[in-house]
Amino acid sequence: MKITIILLLYIASQAYCQQNDEILGYMYVFAQEWPGSICKFQKCTKTYMGNYDNARWNTHGLWPNTMLETTCGMIFNCRDEDYDEDKLTVATKTLIDVTWNGMYSDTFTFRKHEWEKHGTCHPDNLTQNGYMSRVGNLNNQYNYYKILASAGIYPDDDRQLTDAEVRAAFTKVLGISTAMTYTCQKDSATGKFYIAELRTCFTQAMKPRTCDCSKPVGAFVTCGKVFYYPTFLLTLDEQIELEEISDLSNGFLE
């Protein structure tokens, strides 16, 4: 009887340790948004686009998640440390002014939200400059615009895309087809889907891994059988409308 009890306790303790090992692992979700789609539904402005170079997707964020065997759980607001751009180097500011802007809402507020909610949870306990620099460099390393372009996929208002086409482009770079996921915005008037946010997923060692966190956020929806990757160019009217536009951070922050 004693042997049976001891054996059961041993099995239970091993299961507990295994569960803890799984929970203490991390995965990262790196999210970028395509301005051509986002700005169809939001009033984007030149000021809020910063030094965006029209040759990339805009960063949404890098989100640490606790990694379990079959799912993942987002963690947030881990440290009480207010965002302060004075802590960023000139090089980091220059980098994120190209790769990470508010598009349709105040850029400082957007970055502040991402740092305080997600950056404070980075398991490497990065400084603000370290986190913002890492995210900006990831945008350069995994430039979604270039990844798609390498497969002959460019912004086009008329071309219909399929999951197979987009996924094949990223599989060449990431090595596995399940290391990316994406969502769309739907035009209620036309019924058309526009690819809006695309996410790539990584292990704690920054190796591509299957994305378990695939639920759309905010106003995003699952794409249809075919969808569009529209062109993007701020018109003069959009560039000078800034003072007439209120802060529109409704439902897109994650």
Tally of DSSP helical segments: 8
> What's the N-to-C terminus distance?
53 Å
CATH class division:
Alpha Beta
CATH topology: Ribonuclease Rh, Chain A
CATH hierarchy: architecture:
Alpha-Beta Complex
Would you count the extended β strands for me? Answer: 7
Low-confidence stretches: 1-23, 238-251
Largest sheet geometry: 5 strands, antiparallel
Which class best fits the helix and strand makeup? alpha+beta
What features would you describe in this structure?
35% of the residues lie in helices and 19% in strands. The protein contains 8 helices and 7 strands, in the order αβαββααααβαβββα. With 254 residues, the chain is an alpha+beta fold. Helix 3 (90-99) crosses helix 5. The protein has one domain (25-244): Ribonuclease Rh, Chain A. The strands form 2 sheets. Strands 3-2-1-6-5 form a 5-stranded antiparallel beta sheet. A two-stranded antiparallel ribbon has the order 4-7. The termini are far apart.
